[in-house]
Sequence to fold (274 residues):
Amino acid sequence: MPELPEVETIARDLEQKIIGLTITGVDIYDTRVLFGLSKEKFTRRLRGQTVTRVYRRGKAVVLDFADGTYLIVQVKMTGHLIYGRHLRQTKNLKDTKVVFHLSNNVYLNYNDQRLFGWLIYTDNLDTVGYFKNIGIDPVNDTFKVEWLTDELKKRTAPIKPLLMNQNFLAGIGNIYASEILYRSKIHPQKSSKTLSIDEVRRLHKVTTKVLKEAIALRGTSMRNYRDSDGKKGNYMNRIKVYGREGRECFICRTPVKRIVQTGRSTFFCEKCQT
Ligand SMILES: [Zn+2]
Fold:
């Protein structure tokens, strides 16, 4: 599942490519990815829209249009936004669910193999369910160590699922939660309120560092993630624990352990993370 760095990469790339362009047409091949609007209304409202900004909010890509409306794309597990040829017309790619025609005669394809993602067109971002209770963005300046200290004190949940809670911090998923805790030397099952001052400081610093590093390296490709050119991310080579069960910890050579927390695999070193 694309997390903050992958979605940030998609948004930054797209902004370079489509800013100032106008959507001249929309082809919809599967209405199940549209939320709230019929095929006809979606097509009619999107046609003629000029893109003024593209950015990430949580794990969603937001396109701002000149008339003050927005298109939100949640790529989720298997969604991709691919800029280039019309993939349905040129390659008959069945995963291509929606194609936006752009005024430079290039296309923006929304591919989704398993239909986990969605597209919403709205004139008010606050009405979108996903944004309603969204947490602080960990690569934004609003993510402060004082805030984190206060919030962790209030919570008894184990730290790993808390890091992944989108109403707490927006954008961290399973891969980066394991990586952040490994680098912070914090045990994933540790209750949030029991973290020491030093641990909270480390966690704060490492969280931002890992995410920024991953953005610089264009994200991690485990299975499905691709950027807007269809290419994989380069953070894979920096992964220390995720998916490495039974293999040696890079620091102490203890085999990396896997446990399940709230239904998701957590990878960690029981010697380095206490
Ligand atoms: Zn270790």
Residues 251 and 272 are 8 Å apart (CA to CA). Residues 4-132 form a domain with the N-terminal domain of MutM-like DNA repair proteins fold (CATH 3.20.190.10). The mean pLDDT is 93. The radius of gyration is 20 Å.
